[in-house]
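Checklist before submission:
- one chain only
- standard amino acids only
- sequence pasted in full

Submission:
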Amino acid sequence: MNLQTANLLEQAQLAHAASNWALLLQCLQQLMADRRLETELIFLPQHPQLSSPTPLAWAIDILTWGDFHQRWDVAKLLPKFGREAIASLLEILADEDADEELRWFAVRSLGTFDNPEAIAALVELLQTSANPEEQGIAAAALAEIGSNAVSAITKLLKRENTRALATRSLAYIRTKETIEPLLSVVRDADLEIRAIAIEALSSFHDPKIPPILVEALSDLGAKVRKEAITGLSFRPDLREELNLVDLLLLRLYDFSIDVCLAAANGLGRLGTDRAATGLFRVLQSPHTPSALQIEIVLALGRIETSASLEYLRQVFEQITSIAIWQETINALGRVEQLSLKPQAAEILLELLRTNCLAAQHAKLKQAIALSLGQLGEMPAISSLIQLLADSDLAVKLHAIAALKQLNSTAAYQQLTQLAADANISPQLQQGVAIALREWELSSSF
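Returned file contents:
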């Protein structure tokens, strides 16, 4: 052992004796950084030069008494100590008086060992712990271990009292080895187990899974149906093969509002004109809850086809809810396809030109201005300038913000010209003056 190592050991012993966990951690990190010392310092039960506990005991003491950051750093060193460290961590978990944060670190640290003993310990904790949060940490730790933990967890599926926890653990892991165990519980009597399994399976592109998801659309449990809808909506590659649009349209009439909302969201994600037509049909119904109407509006905006935008235009003719009008205006402002932005902007500009009921509310005019600014279509400049004559200051300020977003230079030029025009209304003169002051203030910074 060289002099530097001997000095580090002596310094570590003194730090341990003084409970100086920061210095002890620093010494331990330096010692463990030298791979040649691992066998000498770690795997021997006691080094002849050590009169105090071994480095493993030092690490456990830092984990036990250190602050959060020291615990976090020393936990990274524990896997180097092998099986002995697992035994020490289990001793912590066996101590009923150990604080919650320490137990959290002990469980989390077990997840860093790709070791059968660590897996068995975590599985046992899943079975025996009465603390749901601790069980969740154990499940997450098993997920960190990954594939090697699957066989141990799968055995727990056979026991009724551990099946739910085992299913949740498999759902955390998300490797292909979990597919078969999860498939074995998709028809379990427990609703929660079925829902967890369906949600987890949805993340895999395995040919055995889509038929299971389609079957789950008719499950008696609303939560299961909802998870199946979400999973299938992320499979546009199967849209035509499985007739997904029609399957999800049926779920718009589900007894559960949560399922209906998931179906609307999913149809927006699948994005076809047929989906848009079905969504608008439900939107028009006087029996459709407002929450579902709003979700349908969002879905129509997400579809982004000329047909879906036309349906959004008709919302202002056939629906009388201010809340839904506002969501529609917001959805139009979020259109991203360049070819559809002019159509979206024209719908909003038409609202202002015709002064329909939706354009007579201050909050809606603010939303229209914001959406026009987001769309970035230059023909909107003149209509936004006209909003400067509005009696509501917030409307004026939203119009100014939209003009700056569209084209600050072009808007400023038009405002300057209007300021010199004596024929404009006093209201517009005042609005133009406010806008020009805003431009001057922003340019001064």
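Reviewer check: The first helix runs from residue 3 to 17.
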